[in-house]
Amino acid sequence: MAGTLPAAQSATAADAAADPQRVTVDLAASEGPVMRGANGTLYGLSDDGVPSDAILAPLKITSVSQKPEGGAQHPNGDALTVSSSFFRNGGGEINVMMQDIYAKWPYEDLGIEDYLPKVDKIVTEVAADPNSERFVYIPFNEPDQIWYNLGTSNQAQYEVNRDRFLKDWKTVYERIRAIDPDARIAGPNESGYHTRLLRDFLAFAKRENVLPQVMTWHELDSSSLRNFQGNYDSYRAIERELGIAPLKINIDEYANRRDLSVPGQLAQWVAMFERNKVYANQAYWDAAGNLDGNVVRSNIPNGGWWYFRWYAGLTGDTVKVTPPQANTVDTLQGLASYDKKRRQAQVLLGGSAGDADVVVQNVSRSVFGRTVTATVAEAAWSGYEGQHATPRVLARTKVKVAADGTVSVPLRGLHKMSAYRIVLTPGGTGTPTAASVPWSASYEAEDAAITDGKVYTQGTVSNANGYAASGTKDVGSLNTPSSKVDFTVDVPVAGTYDLAILYGNQSGAPATQKLSVDGQAPVTVTYPSTENWTYRAKKDVTVDLPAGQHVLTLAKGDAEVTLDRIDLTARTSAAPSASYEATLADISGRPSYDYSSSAGVGTGALVLRSGDKAVFDVYAPRDGYYTVVARASAAVNLELHGQKVTAAPGKGLRLYLVAGNNRVAVTAKGASVRSLAVSGAGSTSGTLSYEGASATLAGGAKLVDSAHASGGSYIGWLGNSASSTAEFTVDAPKSGRYLLVVHYAHNDRRDNGHAYNTDIMSRTADIAVGAGAARTVTFKNTWSWDDYWTVGVPVDLRAGANKVTFGNVGAWAPNIDRIELGRVVG
Q1: Which residues of 546-634 form beta strands (DSSP E)?
Q2: CA distances from 248 to 235, 238, 438, 576, 819 (A)
Q3: How far is CA 118 from the centre of its chain?
Q4: SS3 labels along 697-714
Q5: How far apart are CA 95 and CA 42, in angstroms?
Q6: How many H helices and E strands in the chain?
Q7: Distances (CA, A) of 179 to 104, 123, 185, 210, 378
Q8: Measured between alpha carbons, how far is 81 from 311 in angstroms, rounded to an integer?
Q9: Which residues contact 110 (CB under 8 A, 6 or more apart)?
Q10: How are strands ordered across the β-sheet holding 3-4?
Q11: How far apart, in Å, are the Cα atoms of 54 and each of 88, 89, 276, 763?
């Protein structure tokens, strides 16, 4: 009988299934090296710094698609402009969507003679780039619908249209190669998979010597989760039929709005693409610069980001996974990897509610030993703009490998929108620390008592481009003075509870609701703006509740807010904490893996020697100080924000973390590292804070009154000339590396007339310390002029007075509310 893992969590009545679904993972059935091809994005980057380096680097993104430099289709996302940040953070290649040089959608059809000079300009610029070999040209986008109408059902008309397209394909292909002889070209790039054109296209392209180096098409419907495998098999059969060697495939647009940001949906798409070893880029339905819905602001993970972080952490080979139902929409699907050298197996799965048994077969005793530690974690859906802390570990248990070489991991009470990761490592001696899972419960707004509001249905299989909503429903139109939603909750013990509210705020400014418990005096909850009323974000507050049943009321405040769901979680300690396993960190050099003991985090230890490095991704809920403890056998060196510090084993360091993800590098001349333990809520004790009113303004920059700014005013009209500056004098208690945290707002946009894209723009500011050279920093659009976000910038200060100057010679800088500074080592 297989070794088993105790249930990860209890099933709820809504999620429980009569019989657990079965997922099998065969570690002996390799599918080839982990490729990580399905983590790409279309317009996932908008500017250098949006998203941040700390968000990009951990994902190891293999391909992105962006517009040509100066393209009129969107106001940002130019391929050459974003290439610096993409490549320095380990990015693979950039697809250049050449027709996005045009302004209109669908593109203006001005004839091939109008297009060719544009092709010349694009290729000349890309070919001159030092990284030109890392770009791929996509000459046509959705030609079945745009310019050529290749999707017509009239066969005679199709043949006329086809011949015009093939002629133009050859003309453009040869034009590109004339300028860039080594160019890689992708196509035909239809909006879906169509055998009619593909067979004709490939036969023509082979005969005329204009075959693409990358085959592209789009999978943009819920049915793709059912049909892609057949499409892929059909395409490879056409290649064989025509005698064409297998081409690299990039499904350069995939998934719908209801999928993006949702770990349980992404798990289904990624599994099928990785299994077939194709590259794939998520579709661009909303705003550029947020990895297609997987990053909050510029540096804050959501649930989707954590899923892709797990995906990036797979090593070795992928192995065969047999789901309960293959090629079926909205079902439990999985992806698994096996790294024999690291002695690790990982399983990523999601897409279904209820219970499941994951059976891992061929768990080699020569690799793992007689026992394994099984660690289970959950990445939940937190909305497109909802922050997600480090995924919670649900179970950490040592189990025996059965005589038949199997280990069974039972998962109970799975949530449909969540993804789960199972890590198997050798058990060794000792006992891993049991996971501490606090009591938690979720309550849907549509199931609550609603007064003067309306239930709406959002993203579903039949309305796949509707936005994701928990349970596919939310409560909107809460726009009258009496509008409210009463949630009846039941908590097991008296105490403090974290209350997470999934919401949308379409008002164009911070909006409020009144939160009351059992009709007592209400408190005000303030909700930052969101892209629209269905683009879900998450607001975290706390409530103190006696044991038993209560009514939590969210009533209309000063504007309309849409409610989706609330989550109540028992607060188990004064400060949040998380532990990051060293054996799952990114590595360089040749560290070794020691599983002789499974004590602590259960996954053993990483042994670092000179030349080795481990990089941890550490989450912070807000800017401020946290306690970081290295669980190691000897002193190690930490590097954070460019600052190096020695950490004694087991002794806490007070380090400044920025809101969202922080990359912490660990090196040692000889140390066995189990984990980094991080705790705290972001203390601002010891930080320096300066309101905009304290700055010296020049050249037209001025203070503007604002009820939403922390000091009642912000610095506006900053930049757009060399003379327009804001100069702060900051008094540093010590010399050293500090984090300069800028509280800012702006809402620059350029409406290009798209039916679905929100063309927000970024602003930049040049920041100089003393007489030093100015550094250009990018500030993402904050959805409104009255919502203040933060960006952290490492700066070096000397003890005493320092001048910090903001400006922008050629354009407007963002509005600045205030600045804070915290020494990296507090």
Answers
A1: 548-556, 562-570, 577-581, 586-588, 592-594, 605-609, 613-620, 624-632
A2: 12, 14, 46, 45, 48
A3: 33
A4: EECCCEEEECCCCCCCEE
A5: 9
A6: 9, 53
A7: 27, 7, 13, 15, 50
A8: 27
A9: none
A10: 3-4, 407-414, 354-361, 21-33, 317-322, 333-339, 344-350, 419-426, 371-379, 392-400
A11: 11, 8, 29, 20
Residue 78, strand partner residues: 67
Cα–Cα distance, 537 to 565 (Å, whole number): 11
**Contact 795/740 with Cβ under 8 angstroms?**
yes
* Chain centroid, CA 1 distance in Å: 39
Token pair in block for residue 536 = 């879900």
Nearest C-alpha neighbor of 778 from the set 41, 42, 44, 51: 51
Residue with token string 């430099």: 69
From residue 513, alpha-carbon distances to 237, 374, 503, 544, 565 in Å are 58, 43, 11, 18, 15
Residue 188 CA to residue 146 CA, distance in Å, equals 12
| Beta carbons of 486 and 452 less than 8 angstroms apart | no
Cα distances (angstroms) measured from residue 303 to each of 267, 485, 571: 12, 26, 21
Residue 737 and residue 641 in contact, taking contact as beta carbons nearer than 8 Å: yes
Which helix (H) or strand (E) segment is 179 a member of? helix 155-179
Cβ count within 10 A of residue 480: 12
Structural contact between residues 438 and 570, judged by C-beta atoms closer than 8 angstroms: yes
What 8-state DSSP symbol labels residue 17? Answer: -
Closest CA to 589 of 478, 499, 665: 665
Q: What is the DSSP letter of 334?
A: E
pLDDT at residue 13, rounded to an integer: 40
Instruction: Give the helix/strand (H/E) hosting 266.
Output: helix 263-275
Whole-angstrom distance, CA of residue 631 vs CA of residue 652: 10
Q: For residue 657, what are the CA distances in angstroms to 226, 618, 640, 641, 788?
A: 43, 9, 9, 9, 18
Rounded Cα distance between 247 and 657, Å, is 44
> Could you give the 3-state DSSP secondary structure of residue 97?
strand
515 neighbors 508 (Cβ within 8 angstroms): no
φ/ψ bin of 519: left (φ > 0), alpha (ψ from -120 to 50), beta (otherwise):
left
DSSP 74: S
Q: What are phi and psi of 208, to 5 degrees?
A: -95, 5
Question: CA 50 to CA 290: how far, in whole Å?
Answer: 7
Tokens 């087991």 locate to: 650
What is the distance between the alpha carbons of residues 633 and 670, in angstroms, rounded to a whole number? 9
Of 310, 418, 569, 423, residue with least CA distance to 25 = 423
Instruction: Tell me the HSE value of 27 on the side-chain side, using a 13 A CA sphere.
Output: 24
Interior/surface letters 159-168, b for 16+ CB within 10 angstroms, e for the rest: eebbebbbeb
The pLDDT, as a whole number, for residue 171 is 98
With a cut of 50, list the residues of the chain below it in pLDDT: 1-17
Q: CA–CA separation, 797 vs 730, rounded Å?
A: 9
Alpha carbon 223 to its chain centroid, in Å, reads 24
List, in order, residues 6 or more apart from 819 with CB less than 8 Å away.
689, 690, 728, 730, 740, 741, 742, 743, 804
What's the confidence (pLDDT) of residue 574?
Answer: 74
CB 333 within 8 A of CB 271: yes
Give residues with Cβ within 8 angstroms of 648, minimum separation 6: 630, 635
| Cβ neighbours for 231, distance < 8 A, ≥ 6 positions apart | 193, 217, 219
Q: At 443, which amino acid appears?
A: Y
Paired with 766 in beta bridges are: 776, 807
Asked if residues 646 and 666 have their Cβ atoms less than 8 Å apart, the reply is no
SS3 of 303, please? helix
State the pLDDT at residue 18: 66
